[in-house]
Fold:
Amino acid sequence: MRNYIAVIFNDNGKAYKGLHALWELDGYGDITVHGTTVVHRDDWGQFQVDTKETHPALATAVGVGVGALLGALAGPAGAAVGAAGGAAIGAGTGGVVGLTTDLVRADTREEARDETAFVLGAGQSAVIADVSEDSTLPIDTRMRELGGIVRRRSWTTLHDDAWFGSTYLYPYEYVPPAYY
Amino acid sequence: MSVNMSTNKDLDQIRAAAQQLHGAISDAAAKRGGAIKADLEAVGQKAKSVTDSVQASIGAQNEATKKRMQEALADLEAVQKHAAEALKNSGQAFQASIRQTLADARASVQKVSEAVAAKRSAESTKTRK
Structure:
């Protein structure tokens, strides 16, 4: 099954360990990772997404795309908030995403088994990823070891919502130089 | 078994090459002036090399994997086309070509990655039987 996941960590360092562990699982063939990024929320509630795009138009597009994805992870109402907040993410002025759940659709559509709303608190970081996994066990086990909480939504469901694609996720392990 | 392991390894290598291609375009897009043009020439050659690898590997794949790789081929050919256009263009047309080249490269990695997932899933199903 193919899912979008958000793995929430209490600090940046652990989020990068989680990112690395995800790509390691891919390397072992346990899962296939199609794209990842890391999103941070500072103590004042502002969002920042990792990007190496220095061109303003590309950087803004990444902010909008990832913002829409964050909102979509939160459910349909969140998608609207996420798209609006996405521009703010790109501009570094913050936004509010991850506020709602999608209980109605969870009953009527094919969903990931443990689909849950994604909420990123102030001071937390999250690894966002598009993955194919035959079982949720490898990711859940490894991320739990690292102190991460895994949230999932079905890739199919989110693509039906047509708010975004996964094109703004890096198709390889990208860690900004500042974090090396 | 050895054939499957070999084709899995080939696919992993193709994905790694496609990931490097995307990274190279992304890095080139951050540059200015003549430096970006030189990088784009290398991007065109690298895209051609990845395209050749996909074409060489496609016959050995199962149907689901083959379908994804054929889609990747179209994206890789688009990378070559738009990188070549960027070399000829300037100003806004140049920027548009760069953005399109990057989008094509991202799409090609996505398709190869989906091919890897399809292959792994098929192998996993066979192992369970």
Q: What stands out?
A: Helices of chain B lie at 2-29, 33-57, 63-88, 91-128. Chain B touches chain A through 24 residues (CB under 8 Å). Residues 2-128 of chain B form a domain with the Four Helix Bundle (Hemerythrin (Met), subunit A) fold (CATH 1.20.120.660).
